Amino acid sequence: MSLEAKIDYTNIPKHIAVIMDGNGRWAKQQGQDRLFGHTSGVESVRSTIKVARELGIKFLTLYAFSTENWNRPKEEVDGLMDLLVQSIANEVDELNENGIRLITIGDDTQLPRNCQEGLAGAREKTKDNTELTLVLALNYSARWEIMEGLKKIAVEIENKNLTSEQVNEQLFESYLSTKNIPDPELLIRTSGENRVSNFLLWQIAYTEFHFTDIFWPEFRKEHFLKAILDYQARERRFGLVSEQIQG
User: Fold this and answer.
1) Which top CATH class is 12-141+183-234?
2) Contact indicator for 153, 176 with CB cutoff of 8 Å
3) What residues of the chain score a pLDDT lower than 70?
4) Tens-place pLDDT, residues 177-213
5) Which of 51, 48, 43 shows the shortest CA–CA distance to 19?
6) C-alpha count within 13 angstroms, C-beta hemisphere, residue 71
7) Is residue 70 helix, strand or coil?
């Protein structure tokens, strides 16, 4: 039986988040520089978006560039920014034709001007699409996001627009970058690393994790389907016991 035939289409995650890891190590295995790995990873992004749309997943979040990534060698960072601009220009029409909306989370004001302009144009062009929302986490850090939310709430309290008694989980979530995005049911990380690396720390409280040894440039449809099958084999209890879930 094929992987696709095994998928339970009544139990597809609404939101899947992906930490795209291993570009540099994969490139090194090929005797190439790290940027070659990032460039090769673009095809994995295309494949993942295509499968997500086919399966009816509504939100796909890709961890594209963290705040910590600025500490990498300047040549690599500059190359990543150029690749981002080029990829947006190359892919935006296809995204639009396939009903895919592009949004971003993170502090994109720190990105180069041409990146900001390219992202703004792509967001505007695809804003009315409803098949799939592609969320790019760019210059993103979960700790940054949480701190920014706390600062905004503190200002509201200081200005007498809120009281501390009004602050609860729902209100706090409305001050996060992901305020209009459901929490991910599944988080995938490639390359054999078993950590979340400052990604969506608030939002993954009840998320299922799938770790694979596959490097991101090698990640394709079959690997995405295996992650979903792994997810579907689990019982999600949310603090309850099995008997309560089964009911």
Assistant:
1) alpha beta
2) no
3) 236-247
4) 999 999 999 999 999 999 999 999 999 999 999 999 9
5) 48
6) 3
7) helix
CA distances from 5 to 59, 149, 221, 226, 231 (A): 22, 43, 13, 12, 15
Which of 104, 90, 97, 106 lies closest to 126 in space, CA to CA? 97
CA pair distance 109, 98, nearest whole angstrom: 28
User: How far apart are alpha carbons 189 and 168 in whole angstroms?
Assistant: 30
pLDDT at site 242: 56
Domain boundaries, the chain: 12-141+183-234
Distance in angstroms (rounded) separating the CA atoms of residues 174 and 233: 32
Which residues are tagged catalytic? Answer: 21, 69
Angle between helices 221-232 and 34-55 (to 10 degrees): 60
Question: The pTM is what?
Answer: 0.94
- Label residues 202-226 b or e (16+ Cβ within 10 Å = b): ebbeebbbbbbebbbbbbeeebbbb
Per-residue pLDDT tens digits for 138-150: 999 999 999 999 9
pLDDT of 1 reads 81
Beta strand residue intervals within 106-244, DSSP E:
132-140, 186-189, 208-211
What pLDDT does residue 235 have?
A: 79
Name the one residue in this structure whose structure tokens are 């144009």.
121
The separation between CA 111 and the C-alpha centre of its own chain, rounded to angstroms, equals 18
Token readout for 10 is 């009544």
The pair of three-digit structure tokens given for residue 117, joined into one six-digit string: 């302009």
